[in-house]
Structures are given as C-alpha cells and as structure tokens.
C-alpha cells in the first residue's frame, strides 16, 4: 500500500485542492463546475477550497470564467451573490496531457494554492476522453503525487469497452494508484432515488419481507430519453446504448435492488454485497436481447441516427436495447430483471417497476397485480399500485395507489444533483457510491459475450421513429418475461412534469432538473 493510501483511512475530511482535467470539455462545463458551484453555495465546499482547471485549450481567466458559468443556473439572489466568490476560487492552466514539464507547471500552481489554503489533499477529476486516461494518470503520478498529501482520482466512464479492455485499464491504473485512491464515477449512484433504495428496502419491514421470488414476479428497470445522440454520435457509435447506459447505470440500480442487506453502510460492506449479486448473474443469452436504432421522426423534423454526420453510414449500433438478466441465487431464481433503455423516445424517465405475483384464489375477478414503482426521474416518487374497493355499494375492485411523490410530500427540499452528491463523497473520502474494480469486472462478464455478438453485426437493430415508444416487439419482449399489463385503466396522477406544474402555485418542493 502506498504512503498516500495509508493515510486516507484516517484522513477523510482533509481540505482538498480540486484539479479538473479536461476543464474545457462538455462534462466539465455541464456537470463538474455546476456541481462544484452547487456545493459551494450550499456551504458543503470549504470556502478555502481552490479549484484549478487544466486542458490543452489556451484560455485567459475571463474566457475560462465565461466557460464555467455557461451552465450554472442562477435562481436566487444568494446564487448571484455566491457566483463571483466561487469564481475567485477557480483558476485555469493550459497544458498537454503527456508532457511532464506542463504537469510540473501545474504542480507549481497546486503548491502555490496549497500554501495559501492549507490544503492537504488533492482531488484530480478526469473529465477526459478515455483515450487519454492513462497518459494523464501517469503524468499526475510522476509530477503531482506527493508524499504526505492525500491523492484522490475521479475517473469517468466508460471504464473500457469489454472485459479485456476494462481489465487492461484497471491494471494500468492500478499500477499508478491504489484502489483506495480511485473513484470510478457512475452518476446514477448519486441520484436521490437510487440512494433511497437501501433505505426503502432495509428500513421498511413491509417491503423487506416481500422482496424475493416468492412474492415478486418480475422487475423492470427503464431508462428513456427524448434526445438522440445530440452531437455525441462519434463517441456513441463506438459504444452503443448498452455500454453507454445499461452496463453501468441500469446494472448499478439492479444491484441495489437485488443485493442482500450489507453488514453496514460502509463502502466495502455495500460493495461486497453488490459484487455478490453480479457474480450470480450468467452472461446474457442471445434470445434475451432486443435492440433498436432510431430513424427520422414521423413528421421528418428530427433526424435519424444515421443522419448524424459523425455516425458511419450503415452503422448497426443500437440506440435502444432491452435485455433480461437472471440472478441465480436463493432470493431471485426465476425472477426476470428486464432492463430497457433508449434514446430519441417519446418521453424522458427512469423508473424501477417491481411487479408482484397474482393473488391466488378466485374470490375476485379482474384483479391487477400489485406494483411498486420507484420513479428515479423526473418527479421523484415511490408509489405502490394496490387494489381497492371502488367506493359505493358494490364490491367492485379498482386500481389505486399509495403515492409518495416528493413534490407533494416534502416542503422546501432541494434535491441535489447527482454530481454534487458524488463530488462531496469523494471530497470526504467516501467510496460507497463509487464502483469498485471487482464490481466492474463482474459487470463486464455479464455483458461482454452479448456485446461481441452485437458488435459483429449478428443482431439487426429494429428501426423505430424518433419520438416513438421504441421498436416494435418491446411489449411482447416484456410480456414474454412475465410482465402483465392490467386491462383496468390506471394512470399515475403525477406522471408528467405538466401534472406537477398543474398542481398549482402551492408547489413547495424545489426540484432541480
Ligand atoms: N459529456 C457528458 O455528458 C458525459 C461524459 N462522460 C464522460 O466524461 C468524460 C469526458 O467527457 P466529455 O467532457 O464529454 O468529453 P470532451 O470530448 O468534451 O473532452 C473533454 C476535453 O478533453 C480534451 N480532449 C477531447 N478530445 C481529446 C483527444 N482526442 N485527445 C486529447 N484530449 C482531448 C478537450 O480539451 P482540450 O482540447 O482543451 O485539451 C476536451 O475539452 C468521458 O470519459 C465521457 O465518457 C460521462 C457521462 C456524461
Ligand atoms: O451517462 C450518460 O447518462 C446520460 C443520462 O444521464 P441523466 O442524468 O440525464 O439521466 C445519457 O444521456 C448519456 O448518453 C450517458 O453517457
């Protein structure tokens, strides 16, 4: 174990200097700096914290500041007051990613700000394309890694393309930094409702006792986006929707839904349980996958995937995928976990739908199955679909719900951005919501064989129109794995953003988009 790693055990709350590598890029501008600002204005960031941006692009201070503020939303007077103070903490340094002398200049800058702030830890945020991860990590190790200073490295996905490349990345990174120093970010682990999963499951007897194959018939985890690849076609085409969303975000949700109770909330206890679940899942079978690719919208206004000039002609990269995973352990054998994700669909939402088995006996007719729906975004909510007596003189059953919609239940709550939550965790040295190397390995084992089949062009993606519900066959795919759609009419009252807005001005919860 390195000198630096040894000290981290006891020094979680060190004052950090934050170094954002790739500071000129999309992620840094859209997510990293707005999240750092969010932490600052809510007093989670020590006001002495210094933030240094680093990238190849030459920028003076004013240009850099213009860049940082582009996606920072200023909603209140306090926000407007906080911004100039936040900008004072930020500076920018240009340099190449593989030149020691440039990282030496960066080192001088870090030492200068450390002297002023008294910081004893460094958080390097790699907001960079994976092609430069290792050369940047090497440059940091050679030039900016100091004995006695805590070093933390946030690495963005994708963590490889398949099992082999992921192992290589892990090996190369592992030769430079300890596992304790590495924070592999999956921003879904920072989402409020994803963080709520352990509490829902393990702090409620009524849920805990039915959370198994004896009561649950099937589980669906769905991610839908209205946008297409939106200028990221070059990146996307290499990866496809399974690597972009399913193998990481949806699988992380699955592990939290399916794992056994951890011994504690400690990072290693939680991650041990997550790995165990993944190891019980066999690789996805070819018959358990359906893929699609979006075409022009029906009105011709939105372009098809292949119309993106950065996408190679005739590409078969899927922009939609549905797969079914099975966890072969005592709790879950026989329960299909159906993961669905797609771009350019009819709506934006991420939700977990747990459908229970049928009620036995024949006392009632026309019953719908119970469902617990955990709405990750938008309109965070947990609602339970139950059968109820239709009010009146008869004994007719009707679907109703027990609805915990955050917008109506919690007053004046600000739901933090996922990146705010995760950056705060890394500043505090907390790994619980980051991906461990063996977790990654187990995840790639599940997906690599089917990805190879898809990459070989063996599975033809089914075309679907931009803005539609997805490719034909998804309903049948889901039904094949046991999901039963009720023939009783039911619409969750808070299903759309419009419905939340329509609830009127007394809406108290501030939900950030
Ligand atoms: N953008 C997003 O919404 C998300 C991104 N990610 C991940 O975050 C990381 C960064 O993504 P993103 O910000 O979109 O990436 P960008 O393409 O915007 O790259 C970030 C910066 O890296 C430098 N760069 C770009 N291409 C190269 C290259 N070929 N060689 C060397 N340097 C290069 C550029 O800075 P300069 O030229 O100034 O050095 C650029 O500003 C990636 O790993 C991505 O997968 C994860 C989730 C969401
Ligand atoms: O990681 C990614 O996630 C986004 C979706 O994130 P969300 O927080 O807006 O749900 C997705 O658009 C992108 O393709 C993917 O790389």
From TrEMBL:
A Pfam family annotated for this UniProt entry: G6PD_C
Enzyme class (EC, first level): oxidoreductase
Keyword vocabulary terms for this entry: Carbohydrate metabolism, Glucose metabolism, NADP, Oxidoreductase
Pathway: Carbohydrate degradation; pentose phosphate pathway; D-ribulose 5-phosphate from D-glucose 6-phosphate (oxidative stage): step 1/3
Domain Glucose-6-phosphate dehydrogenase NAD-binding, chain residue ranges per copy: 19-196
Keyword Secreted part of the UniProt annotation: no
InterPro entries in the record: G6P_DH, G6P_DH_AS, G6P_DH_C, G6P_DH_NAD-bd, NAD(P)-bd_dom_sf
Signal sequence, renumbered to the chain: none
Domain Glucose-6-phosphate dehydrogenase C-terminal: 198-483
Catalyzed reaction equations: D-glucose 6-phosphate + NADP(+) = 6-phospho-D-glucono-1,5-lactone + NADPH + H(+)
Keyword Iron-sulfur in record: no
EC number annotated for this UniProt entry: 1.1.1.49
UniProt similarity note: Belongs to the glucose-6-phosphate dehydrogenase family.
Xref: HAMAP family: G6PD (MF_00966)
Function: Catalyzes the rate-limiting step of the oxidative pentose-phosphate pathway, which represents a route for the dissimilation of carbohydrates besides glycolysis.
Name recorded for this polypeptide: Glucose-6-phosphate 1-dehydrogenase
Native source organism of the sequence: Linnemannia gamsii
């Amino acid at each position: 174990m390195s000198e630096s790693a040894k000290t981290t055990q006891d020094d979680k709350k060190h004052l950090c200097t934050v170094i954002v590598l790739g500071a000129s890029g999309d992620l840094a501008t859209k997510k990293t700096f707005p999240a750092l600002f969010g932490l600052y204005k809510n007093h989670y960031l020590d006001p002495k914290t210094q933030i240094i941006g680093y990238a190849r692009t030459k920028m003076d201070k004013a240009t850099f500041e213009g860049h940082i503020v582009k996606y920072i939303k200023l909603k209140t007077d306090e926000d407007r007051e906080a911004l100039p103070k936040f900008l004072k903490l930020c500076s920018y340094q240009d340099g190449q990613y593989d030149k020691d002398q440039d990282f030496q200049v960066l080192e001088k800058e870090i030492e200068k700000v450390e002297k002023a702030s008294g910081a004893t830890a460094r958080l390097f945020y790699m907001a960079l394309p994976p092609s430069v991860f290792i050369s940047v990590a090497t440059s940091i190790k050679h030039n900016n890694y100091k004995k006695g200073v805590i070093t933390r490295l946030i690495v963005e996905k994708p963590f490889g393309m398949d099992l082999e490349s992921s192992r290589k990345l892990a090996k190369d990174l592992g030769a430079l930094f300890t596992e304790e120093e590495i924070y592999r970010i999956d921003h879904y682990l920072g989402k409020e409702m994803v963080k709520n999963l352990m509490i829902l499951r393990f702090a409620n007897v009524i849920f805990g006792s039915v959370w198994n194959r004896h009561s649950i018939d099937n589980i669906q985890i769905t991610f839908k986006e209205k946008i297409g690849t939106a200028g990221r076609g070059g990146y996307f085409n290499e990866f496809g929707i399974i690597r972009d969303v399913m193998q990481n975000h949806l699988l992380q949700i699955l592990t939290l839904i399916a794992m056994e109770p951890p011994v504690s909330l400690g990072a290693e206890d939680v991650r041990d349980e997550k790995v165990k679940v993944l190891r019980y899942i066999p690789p996805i079978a070819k018959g358990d996958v359906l893929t699609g690719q979006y075409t022009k919208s029906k009105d011709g206004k939105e372009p098809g995937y292949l119309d993106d000039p950065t996408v190679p002609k005739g590409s078969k990269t899927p922009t939609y995928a549905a797969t079914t995973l099975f966890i072969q352990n005592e709790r879950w054998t026989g329960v299909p976990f159906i993961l669905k994700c797609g771009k350019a669909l009819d709506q934006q939402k991420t939700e977990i739908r747990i459908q229970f088995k049928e009620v036995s006996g024949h006392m009632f007719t026309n019953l719908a199955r119970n469902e617990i729906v955990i709405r990750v975004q938008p309109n965070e909510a947990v609602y339970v679909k139950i059968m109820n007596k239709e009010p009146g003189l008869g004994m007719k059953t009707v679907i109703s719900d027990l609805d915990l919609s955050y917008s109506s239940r919690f007053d004046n709550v600000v739901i933090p951005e996922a990146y705010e939550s995760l950056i705060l965790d890394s500043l505090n040295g907390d790994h619980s919501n980051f991906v461990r190397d063996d977790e990654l390995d187990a995840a790639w084992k599940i997906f690599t064989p089917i990805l190879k089949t898809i990459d070989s062009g063996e599975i033809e993606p089914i075309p679907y129109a931009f803005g539609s519900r997805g490719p034909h066959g998804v309903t049948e795919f889901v039904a094949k794995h046991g999901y039963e759609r009720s023939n009783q009419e039911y619409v969750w009252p808070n299903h759309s953003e419009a419905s939340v807005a329509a609830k009127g001005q007394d809406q108290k919860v501030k939900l950030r988009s």
